[in-house]
Task: structure prediction
Amino acid sequence: LPPEQFHLTTQTVTIEGDDAHHLARVMRAEIGDKVICSNGVDREVLVRIAELDKGRVTAEIVEELTMDAEAAVQVWIAQSLPKGDKMEVIIQKGTEIGAARFLPFLSDRTIVQYDAKKEAKRSERWQKIAKEAAEQAHRNRVPQVESVHSWKQLLQRAKEADVAWICYEKEDGQQLRPAIQQALAQGKLGPGQQVVIAVGPEGGFTEQEIVQAEEAGFQSVSLGSRILRTETAAMVGLTCLFYETGE
Ligand code: SAM
Result:
């Protein structure tokens, strides 16, 4: 639940808005049912429903929970804005797999017309998709979906990370797996460390973008000899990373 819908006192939780509606009308919860509530940041509790109506649900805290479904390493998916609803799929699947943050950006060959006026509505929708996927995956934290960055802003942001990989289908030297193993050996994939995996648009990155990314600290990596769709590449990168780190 977003913090404004999660009023935690020592004894009770009040659930409002869409979540209250979902519990009462969709899940058909009843008084006495137990559900797990998370504030999406750092606290999970088992609660028993005490009062129920579609606008507001009040529940008593039964137990503090300590389960942790989060990956130790924080992975950001930096995704060049794709066509149609692919960004939604990337956010949904990436959240299930364990990404910590999504950073959409614009690059030279981005096909979609970016309309800043629609940004607020779209951001809200993307964040909602992340929240629902996090709930479905029983994650403790909801990944943050950032606003759409320019290419320059992305290069700047990536400097905050401990490791930054840019997926480039023409990379014929560095494969992702040995790059992960090297970063592991260098102690760069530990708890709280940040990794960026950048994926290009349908038309790919330009050579110039790859040069600029490398100058900004990215390592260009190949995901293998087959060309993946943009929405597949991020999932492959994320899954390979968690396979190697054991998460
Ligand atoms: N324009 C390219 C082409 O047609 O040859 C394909 C671009 S691909 C559909 C979209 C993005 O997915 C790329 O920019 C890259 O980031 C990533 N990608 C796809 N396959 C990859 C691979 N084998 N290795 C590394 N990155 C890959």
Summary: Residues 2-7 have pLDDT under 50 and may be disordered. The CA atoms of residues 155 and 216 lie 6 Å apart.
